[in-house]
Amino acid sequence: MEKKRIVGLMTGTSLDAIDIAICDFYNNNNKFQFNLLNYKEYKFSSDYKTFINKIINEKSFIKDISQLNFYLSELFCDCILDLCENSNLNLNSIDAISIHGQTIWHNPSKENFLDKQISSTLQIASISAISSKLSKKVIGDFRSADIMLGGEGAPLIPIFDYYFLWSNTENIISLNIGGISNITYLPKNCNKNEIIAFDCGPGNILIDSYIQEFTDFSFDKDGSLAIKGKIIDSLLKELKNINFIYKSPPKSTGRELFNLKLIKNLIGNNNYYLEDVIATLTDFTAFSISYNIKKFADENSNIIVSGGGRKNQSILKRIKYYLPNSCILLIDELGINGDAKEAIFIAFLGYLNLLKIPGNISQVTGALKEIVLGISADNL
Amino acid sequence: MEKKRIVGLMTGTSLDAIDIAICDFYNNNNKFQFNLLNYKEYKFSSDYKTFINKIINEKSFIKDISQLNFYLSELFCDCILDLCENSNLNLNSIDAISIHGQTIWHNPSKENFLDKQISSTLQIASISAISSKLSKKVIGDFRSADIMLGGEGAPLIPIFDYYFLWSNTENIISLNIGGISNITYLPKNCNKNEIIAFDCGPGNILIDSYIQEFTDFSFDKDGSLAIKGKIIDSLLKELKNINFIYKSPPKSTGRELFNLKLIKNLIGNNNYYLEDVIATLTDFTAFSISYNIKKFADENSNIIVSGGGRKNQSILKRIKYYLPNSCILLIDELGINGDAKEAIFIAFLGYLNLLKIPGNISQVTGALKEIVLGISADNL
User: Fold this and answer.
1) Which of A40, B121, B188, B326 has the most CB atoms less than 10 A away?
2) Sign (positive or negative) of CA dihedral A146, A152, A155, A159
3) Of A149, A144, A128, which Cα lies nearest the Cα of B121?
């Protein structure tokens, strides 16, 4: 049972921070285990955030994109070296570095481009540059292959859920409450081709964007605002009219649909208390999740919650209200650090690449086939 | 002596075409040999050229760069499949595909970028996408590691010259006459750390750009215009004032210095015959090459000429005039297809990656160390 020590780096679409985890992975006949050795979040500077937001939203010279690609590679190297030092780990003990990279474009829908129909995804940070600087094997670019094979390039997390949360006695739902909420449904004793995974609707995004607009806070810590408010029935009713919630999977959504503008439109000229709006958005979020679990998965499941929203007691209470037969657990209770989950997951994708095991699940992403994800450099 | 069959794809800065070579490589104690099985040039459409010129010269949305990255990957796949069919070769017989990618940015000089000093290079076409589409190992991105290690990321061709043109009895100069002219000097029986390589000055670029401006031709076929003209002494004298020619290596140059504007400035209001200007530019080109060989290499060498300019008899005659003691050969005379050389070279870089042999030469590029170049995908 050979050990592989892998550093995983996640940089999400929130453009907030580089999340890094150092993990040891073990393989016992493709029963995988891991130990998290250390985890840390490195916040981006506001200059960096401004720059990358410009790259994503405005026209730029190719020079700026190329320079950013190498700049981010240097930042990644700095963070890796810092975390190793911080953990009293010698870089020599690391077998590979696995990076998601910063997504600057992702659109799985084919569009006309010159004489072809093209869909594409683009993550930056140079795998070769990091590898040459640290003299380490570096693995990354996990979404391109799935996109090229006609898939959505997402979600990829179900393979992690399958290997680490699967049970032969219980139906498992891995619920991630990030900006958007999504689930991986693992019927008890399921095969990989029985896995269902999709976006339910809003996670923290409606609550957070409303709070960020009207207070100095960035989110509803522990759900404490929601608990003080009363649900506004008319607003909840309008929210429940959003068609996406009731669509059959596969489905995915994002900021295009669930955003501040939506809430403002629905509220109109009404003068509601902040706490009441938050209580209502919280209830709607819990309703969307619960409806999708009941309708398209199974409410008699162990629901294992990850993502920042797992710390919002009010969301969890309302899910429990809507799904009285479910058993709700935080992923942390299973011994997996909930804050580190995504960085651990990226490390795991690197591990699967080393083992030449496919990382996508074809009925989940829609790709033509399951393949080993990622490219790698060994510039030693 | 295991055989590896590799497809090499070169797409140069002229944005003209995709050059593809299929080669078998053999390794006999790191004495390498190859057989070229087939070679073909696939011209880009004018729509493609217009688009990529915009990407390089103007601001663009990141979407366009991402889409172009996948579009070019699809084009590469089309060409590979076509050439295999054309050669009656089954894709199954190919061990790896090696791509240079289209350079859209390359600047080894460090510049301020946010809080760091950054230099970078960027080649497009997605290694992972091509690999997943063709179910083949794909290798590429050969310049990033050298740049990250403080090198110029160029020239890389000297490693090819070293393994295939080296002699224990003769001084060898591999002279490439592309847009720019450059040489690799291999003193007889030299070690890798004795190799000298640098840009001499203009190759075809002055001749071609003048012809393209004033005729319907794109180059001086066989040097037939030059042969009809007389050298304009005053113009030649002014050209010879260009300081770059006399600089000590390492040195590199490009379109920034040698271009149509330079010629127009020097000609001013003079009303010269086309043939005379071409004869003069041709002589200056041969002079620049010869001066650099005499001064920084050795005129008593076998000069092996590659690049499109090897077909310009007038350039070669003038080099022979300036270097009477040299022996000038076309690379084709050594059994290497001169048109295919760059694509073969890219295939060879892929081969070196497979063998984990460094591809850069540190005193040539200026990199901190010699390393295996390239990243690879095995999305099978």
Assistant:
1) B121
2) negative
3) A128
- CA distances in angstroms from A313 to A187, A225, A277, B34, B211, listed in the order given: 26, 11, 16, 67, 75
Residues whose CB is less than 8 angstroms from the CB of residue B267 and which lie 6 or more positions away in sequence, other chains included: B235, B277
Where chain A has pLDDT below 70, the residues are 1
Q: For the packed helices B313-322 and B274-296, what is the interaxial angle rounded to 10 degrees?
A: 50
pLDDT of residue B16: 87
Q: Looking at residue B12, what is its pLDDT?
A: 84
Give dist(CA A315, CA A281) in Å, integer: 9
What's the token pair of residue A143?
């979404």
Exposed e or buried b per residue across A9-35, where buried means at least 16 C-beta atoms within 10 angstroms of its C-beta = bbbeeeeeebbbbbbbbebeeeebebe
How high is the ipTM of this complex? 0.94
Query: Distance (Å, rounded) from C-alpha B175 to C-alpha B172?
Result: 9
Q: How confident is the model at residue B68 (pLDDT cuts 50, 70, 90)?
A: very high
Tell me the C-alpha distance between A159 and A162, whole Å: 5
Tokens 């008699």 identify what position?
Answer: A300
Query: What mean pLDDT comes out for the span B50-78?
Result: 96
Residues 23-62 on B with a CB inside 8 Å of A are 45, 47-48, 51, 55-56, 58-62
Sign of CA dihedral B211, B215, B217, B220: negative
B47 neighbourhood in chain A, CB within 8 Å? 114-115
Count of CB atoms within 10 A of residue B333's CB? 11
Secondary structure element (H or E) that encloses residue B80, with its range:
helix B62-86
Which residue type, as a one-letter code, is found at position B331?
A: I
Name every residue whose Cβ is closer than 8 Å to that of residue A73 and which is 6 or more positions away in sequence: A125, A126, A129, A130, A133, B148
**What DSSP state is assigned to residue B136?**
S
Residue B223 contacts residue B211 (beta carbons within 8 Å): no
According to the model, what pLDDT value does residue A30 have? Answer: 81
State the pLDDT at residue B157: 97
* Residue B176 confidence class, pLDDT cut points 50, 70, 90: very high
Q: What is the predicted pLDDT for the residue at A250?
A: 85
Contact B156, B286 (CB under 8 A): no
Distance (Å) from the alpha carbon of A296 to chain B's nearest alpha carbon = 31
- A116/B71 touch (CB, cutoff 8 Å), yes or no: yes
Q: How far is B260 from chain A (nearest CA, A)?
A: 24
Residues 6+ apart with CB under 8 A from B115: A45, A47
Burial of B351 (0-12, 13-18, 19+ CB in 10 A): buried
Find the residue in A nearest to B48 (Cα).
A114
pLDDT reading at B273 higher than 70: yes
pLDDT digits (tens, 9 = 90+) for B230-272: 999 999 999 999 999 999 998 888 888 999 999 999 999 999 9
Beta bridge partners of residue B55, listed in sequence order:
none
Give A375 to chain B, closest Cα distance, Å: 4
Per the CB < 8 A criterion, the answer to whether A200 and A333 are in contact is no
What would the two tokens of residue A54 be? 């410009």
pLDDT at res. B1: 66
- In this structure, what token pair is assigned to residue B294? 């005499």
The encoded tokens of residue A78 equal 């700095």
In DSSP notation, A307-328 reads SGGGG-HHHHHHHHHH-TT-EE
Contacts of B31 (CB under 8 A, 6+ apart): none
What is the share, in percent, of chain B residues with pLDDT greater than 70?
100
